[in-house]
Amino acid sequence: MADQITLYTSPASPYSHAVEIALAEAGANFKKYYIDAKNKPEWFVSKVNPVGQIPAITYGGPDVPPDQPSPESVKLRESTVLLEFITELFPGAGLLPKDLVLRAKARLFLEISKSKLLPAWFGTFRKGEPIENLFAILEQLQAMLPPTGFVVGGYSIADAYIASILSRADIIFENNLNASGWPDDEGARILETLRGPRFVRLAQYKQDLFERPSFKSTFDKAALTEKYKGYFGTPGALQSY
Ligand SMILES: N[C@@H](CCC(=O)N[C@@H](CS)C(=O)NCC(=O)O)C(=O)O
User: Fold this and answer.
1) Which secondary-structure segment (H or E) carries 33?
2) Sheet harboring 31-34: ordered strands across?
3) What are the structural domain ranges in the chain?
4) pLDDT in tens, 86-117
5) CATH number, span 100-240
6) Pocket lining for ligand 1, CB < 6 angstroms
7) Domain named GST N-terminal: which ranges (predicted)?
8) Helix 14-25 vs helix 79-89: angle between axes, to the nearest 10 degrees?
9) What is the 3-state secondary structure (H, E, C) of 213-226?
């Protein structure tokens, strides 16, 4: 029997969503347990992730209820580490290509999404940073895409990672959610650019990402929209998801 996997996650967390997509792609059998990132249970910090962040995974050990983690399981954290772990645990899922150059390309795309795109996106709606920062990174990522298909042709962890960000960005812009007093039409103006001639390839890529069964089965747009709307009415809530 395969070693048990328990994923600690939250619907709002883009990092966690990427890991959920990868597990779905792998057809993994796993338990899912929701952690409120703003109100973490003490046992989660003391027994699963000392940093207190989701996503986190317990791997192996006895089959126990998620809120009673066993000291015998391995505790793993950091979304990009978890994505690599899932890739290696389920080699048949092909979450990274065999070709070394393509593997490096997937990792580079993922790295830029993590270190550049995420901060630019957070900066836009949390702090009102110029939207051009976000557009410039999206252009950079768009230029790395092949004419059709995913980042390195077949689906990889690079696609899982960015799907979690781009899907949440849509919610933010479609609902004009921001903490910095945007004009009423700012979200609509941003979407107009994203749907216009500057981002034709990215728009097609997004459509392909969102049609993937692993994405559809892990994303409830209506529920997440309501959750995000709530965050914008709660001081401090935006900083911790
Ligand atoms: N670098 C981490 C970031 C994870 C992260 O920031 N998770 C947020 C939820 S989206 C969290 O747990 N926030 C609660 C906290 O930081 O205390 C990763 O990639 O896994």
Assistant:
1) strand 31-34
2) 31-34, 5-9, 56-59, 74-77
3) 5-93, 100-240
4) 999 999 999 999 999 999 999 999 999 999 99
5) 1.20.1050.10
6) 13, 15, 37, 52-55, 78-79, 240-241
7) 3-94
8) 0
9) HHHHCCCCHHHHHH
As a dihedral over the C-alpha atoms of residue 101, residue 102, residue 105, residue 110, rounded to 10 degrees, the angle is -140
C-alpha 77 – ligand 1 centre gap (Å): 10
Rounded distance from Cα 26 to ligand 1 centre (Å): 23
CATH of domain 5-93: 3.40.30.10
Instruction: Quickly list DSSP for 129-153.
Output: --HHHHHHHHHHHHHTS-SSSBTBB
pLDDT one-digit tens code per residue, 11-67? 999 999 999 999 999 999 999 999 999 899 999 999 999 999 999 999 999 999 999
